[in-house]
Write a structure and sequence with these properties.
InterPro entries: HAMP_dom, MCPsignal_dom, Sensor-like_sf
Structural class: alpha+beta
CATH class of the largest domain: Mainly Alpha
GO cellular component, one term: membrane
CATH topology of the largest domain: Ferritin
Distance between the termini: 20 Å
Largest sheet: 5 strands, antiparallel
Strand content: 5-15%
Mean pLDDT: 77
Keywords: Membrane, Transducer, Transmembrane, Transmembrane helix
Organism: Velocimicrobium porci
Family: Belongs to the methyl-accepting chemotaxis (MCP) protein family.
Number of helices: 12
Low-confidence stretches: none
Helix content: over 70%
Length: 677
């Protein structure tokens, strides 16, 4: 029982060691990370997609803003060119005098913000007309000026290279054209156009918030206008320390004006028609995505809150779902420890409910089964104890029977020897009786001669007296032997009765053993066979006892008759002896009583004949008694052998009963670990 309890503790310890975590923790540890990962993936994809969409929209918006600004600058440049073309056309066809030309040119003074100093004209021969009143220095040579050199090369009004005005700090470029007025002189019309208006357009007309613009002269890569004063007047080069400017310079040199992302800046380029200018708009991508980044922060916070809420809801849902599973787990653990007392609650109609109902049914079945096993083990233990007691009693009875058989063999052996002695005595008696008969015959034949031979008769009578004394002694011995035979027969009768009682007890024990074996069922089948054999042996013993009883009764009856006859013979012999002694004493009166003596002799002869018959009967009886003794000896040997078999079988029964008892005890100790109440 201790080993069973230790095994139960070991099993409980093993279950505790194996149980490293609950299904609730595993589900939470699985589902919550999946939820978090899903939310992170969704938010990452959403943010990435939003970033892509916003970037594309920002790029489109920046491009549109760039085009719009370029269009504004282009319109401004075209508007100025249109004025210049009109003036040029007028000067070429009006045939103005110099004074008229000055008057005409004076109209443009302060008329236009872009060229407030108006329009002036110079020729190769040094002629210079300027309505603003500016008088060049003496060393001023018109043909050597940049504006004249540019203007003389083309008849259409064209913007020249920009230069920085030291007085105003603004970039100025010359709009020049060769006049075809028919004078034959290389006259050039020119106007100094300030980029201030264009710069204002570049710096203030961005339709995209936080975007900035550059106005670059492509031929020199010079920044003419910029929102950032630090950039203005810089020359773009790939070696610029500013990564943005270096990147823009690289794109300009490759003449790739497509929108691009340059060192974190979204850049859009748009050439301005009719000029050598390039309008560049840029905006930092982080600025474009700042709202998205802020939104991402809000989304992350919201995601964390959502994850917390979902985690809490998931944990509560898992707790609700796993609560019956945990209850079932505790029940199953208790079942593994042999405890079938827990009650399983069945609620709902899902798979867990089906599992709960199945376990509940299983517990009920196990309770009934264990209860039946406990009951059967108790019955088996009780029956094994009874079987052990019966087998021990049977063994004791068999040993007693064996001892009785040994005693019976001894008594029968003594009886045989007594019968042999009786046979010898009967033989002697028959011889004596025969001799007595012969003597009686001679006495009867010579009775008539008694008187004449009285002396001889006295002598003969003395011999007869001695013979009668011998006969008396023999008859006394025979009576004693027959009495011993009677006592032996009584002892044999008592022993046979004892054997009969033992056989009845054995038969009763065999019947009880058969009943117990039937109760034990399959486990008692072998015991039932042994009990059946014991029953058969008891029946055989009972039959043998009955046969022996019959023989002993017959022997007793014969012995009784023999005793009676022997007593009569002894009595007659005593009387004959007395008469013979009397005859010897009163031999003198024989003659007077010879006739009476003759009659007595005849009677004596008849009695001697009877004694002879009795002796013959005793001899025959002793022979029968010897045969009966042999039969008794044989039967006792058979019973002794059967008693030995009964002892061996009873030992086997006792051994099997002990094994059955040990098995029942082991079964009881095994089922003790189970609790059903």
């Amino acid at each position: 029982m201790k080993s069973t309890k230790n095994r139960q503790k070991n099993q409980s310890s093993n279950v505790s060691k194996k149980r490293t975590g609950s299904i609730k923790v595993r589900l939470v540890g699985t589902i919550v990370p999946i939820i978090i990962l899903s939310i992170v993936v969704i938010l990452s994809w959403t943010y990435s997609k939003s970033e892509q969409i916003i970037s594309e929209n920002a790029e489109q918006l920046l491009t549109a803003s760039t085009k719009e600004q370029a269009a504004s600058v282009g319109s401004w440049a075209k508007e100025n060119l249109s004025v210049f073309k009109t003036v040029k056309k007028t000067l070429e066809h009006a045939n103005f005098t110099k004074k008229q030309e000055l008057s005409y040119l004076s109209k443009f003074l302060d008329e236009y913000e872009s060229f407030p100093l108006g329009i002036y004209i110079g020729s190769k021969d040094g002629e210079f007309l300027d309505a603003s009143g500016w008088v060049p220095d003496k060393d001023y040579v018109v043909a050597e000026t940049d504006w004249y050199k540019e203007g003389v090369t083309h008849k259409d009004v064209t913007y020249g290279a920009a230069y920085l005005d030291n007085n105003t700090g603004d970039y100025i470029f010359s709009a020049t054209a060769l006049l075809d007025d028919g004078s034959g002189k290389d006259r050039v019309m020119a106007a100094d156009v300030s980029l201030k208006s264009a710069s204002e357009i570049v710096t203030s007309s961005n339709s995209m918030e936080y975007s900035k613009s550059l106005l670059v002269e492509k031929s020199s890569n010079t920044i003419l206008a910029s929102d950032n004063e630090e950039f203005r007047a810089n020359v773009l080069d790939t070696s610029n320390s500013d990564e943005l400017l270096a990147g823009i310079a690289s794109k300009i040199s490759s003449q790739n004006y497509e929108p691009a992302l340059i060192h974190g800046y979204m850049v859009s380029m748009q050439p301005i028609d009719g000029t050598d200018w390039l309008l560049i708009s840029y905006i930092q991508k982080a600025t474009v995505l700042s709202k998205l980044t802020q939104l991402r922060t809000y989304i992350v916070i919201l995601a964390i809150i959502t994850i917390l809420i979902l985690a809490f809801v998931t944990i509560r849902v898992i707790h609700y779902i796993t609560k019956p599973i945990k209850s079932l787990t505790n029940t199953i653990v208790a079942m593994t420890q042999g405890d079938f007392t827990p009650e399983v609650q069945v609620n709902g109609n899902d798979e867990i409910t089906l599992m709960s109902e199945s376990i509940k049914n299983f517990i009920e079945v196990m309770r009934n089964t264990i209860t039946d096993i406990i009951s059967v083990s108790e019955q088996l233990s009780s029956q094994s104890k009874n079987s052990t007691s019966v087998s021990e009693s049977l063994k004791t009875s068999a040993i007693t029977q064996a001892d009785s058989m040994n005693n019976l063999n001894t008594i029968v052996d003594e009886l045989g020897r007594a019968v042999e002695e009786i046979a010898e005595s009967a033989t002697s008696l028959a011889i004596v009786v025969s001799e007595t008969g012969e003597d009686g015959t001679r006495v009867n034949a010579k009775m008539q001669e008694t008187v004449s031979v009285t002396e001889q008769g006295r002598a003969d009578m003395n011999h007869v007296g001695e013979a009668m004394q011998t006969i008396e002694t023999s008859m006394n011995a025979l009576e004693t032997a027959i009495n011993k035979v009677g006592e032996s027969a009584k002892e044999i009768t008592n022993i046979v009765e004892l054997i009969g009682n033992i056989s009845e007890e054995t038969n009763l024990l065999s019947l009880n053993a058969s009943i117990e074996a039937a109760r034990a069922g399959e486990a008692g089948r072998g015991f039932s066979i042994v009990a059946s054999e014991i029953g058969k042996l008891a029946a055989t013993s009972s039959d043998a006892v009955q046969n022996i009883s019959g023989l002993i009764n017959e022997i007793s009856s014969l012995i009784t008759d023999t005793v009676q006859q022997t007593q009569n013979s002894v009595h007659n012999i005593k009387e004959s002896s007395l008469l013979i002694h009397t005859a010897c004493d009163t031999f003198d009166t024989i003659y007077n009583t010879i006739n009476e003596t003759n009659s007595i002799v005849k009677d004596m002869i008849q009695k001697v004949q009877k004694v002879d018959d009795v002796a013959s009967s005793v001899a025959a009886i002793t022979e029968e008694q010897a045969a009966s003794a042999n039969e008794i000896m044989t039967a006792s040997n058979v019973m002794l052998e059967q008693a030995s078999n009964i002892t061996n079988n009873s030992e086997l029964v006792a051994k099997e009963a002990n094994e059955l008892y040990n098995t029942s005890e082991k079964l009881s100790s095994e089922v003790e670990i189970f609790k059903v109440k």
